[in-house]
Design a protein that fits this description.
The chain is mainly α. Helix content is 74%, strand content 0%. It is built from 13 helices and no strands. It is rod-shaped, with a radius of gyration of 52 Å.
Amino acid sequence: MARQKTVNPYLDKVLDEYRSAVKTWGRHTLLTTFVFLLTGLFFVSPAVRWSDKKGALEEKIRHAELKRQRIESIITDVEGLEAKFVRQRERIAAYGQDLARDLSTRLSVFSRAVRALRKDEEVLITERGPESFPGALLAEQFAQPSDVPVPLDPWPLLMVGYQLSNEDIALIKEAVPGSPKWDKATEVVRSVYYGEIDHIYSKLNEGIGKALNQLKIETEATLKTLSPRVGEFGIELPGADEIIPRVPTIRRPLDDSLFQTREGKREALREDTQFVAFNFDVAKQPLRTAYEKLVSSAKRLEEGFADLQLQHDDVLRALADLDNQVTEAAKHLSHLSVPFDWIPLAIGIPTLVRVYPIFFAVLFFLLVRRLLRLGTLRERLYGDCERQGMLDNDINLVLHTPYTTFAWFTGFEVELSKTTRVLRLIAPVLVLGFLVMMAWYVESSPSFGTRYSVFLHLSAVALSIWGGYYLFRFLFRPPSSA
């Protein structure tokens, strides 16, 4: 159906341009609203959600990594503490063997010094019987080689090295087998024999005591730093008194036959130090239990860390897919007629999210301003048509542009009811509300909200409200302005 013409060709040309401008505005408004809503729902909102999830996962990964480092450090310290127990146990065992070697050497030297004192050149006296040497228990000692030289005159050695008096030394030298002096000399030799053994055991107990004291000091210092650190893992470490072994005083065995040979001495002290080692193993069992719990916690942390990494990789893939979708959408959008060719879709997800509110707020404001200008032009054309003598119905028919968004705001009715005006305000209000909500959503995001972006988003909200105000004034303009 042909459009009605006026009697003024110039006015007809202006009316045609007006109708074209109205159609362009309507198309731009629909496309802009369509792009705005779809971009917000399918690109900006998922991007904010995935980015926040990515940031939250990265924070969890950072905390998990720090926690994993802390528990690994604790495990290393506990392992170091256990190693101290092992080292002290090995030192005690080695110390016992050193004492056995010293005992064997001293008894061998004592035996050789007594023989040198008695001018007895025989090395073995088992053929002559025990009466050939004062103290038969030391007969075997003489047969054992020693690197320690014995002076030709052993008297000073026996006095200084073995604390024998001149009377005891003279008794050993002059005693004759079977005489009363022989029995006394034998007792003197026995006293030296047992005195040396008791002295070795005294040194052994003293060495064990020093080792335990040192271990206790080191253990208390280590546990003092470890206990607060393991609390976050729900593990309680034992106290130093609980894991330091309680070793009773080790005494010379009643059966001293082992001490008559070099290997026997080693065996005797080895058994005693093994008893100490057993106490060490039993005492540090609570520490071993805590260590196993720490290892179990570290394993769970490692599994949780791996799970977080997988989730983080999934989020990165989702963001990459979203970025690809935005690129594809930008390609398809380039074939449409939009208000501006620079709608920012192909600028990357982070930038798109940040400029989305302000960009579409500017578009909304510009579209409203174009609507106001078109409304002003319509009023001028309406007056021109009246001056040409056209009737109101004919004027409305001439100015009417069907099937456009503009017709929603300016219809045939010169006087719209308030209900109709309010209904026609709902759609832009909803769009404005969505824009404000998206600005708040982006600003409240930990990934995109900053103290600088708040000014940008506040500007978007202010611009939207400003445009809404103009739209409200346009819809509720006086009837005479229609």
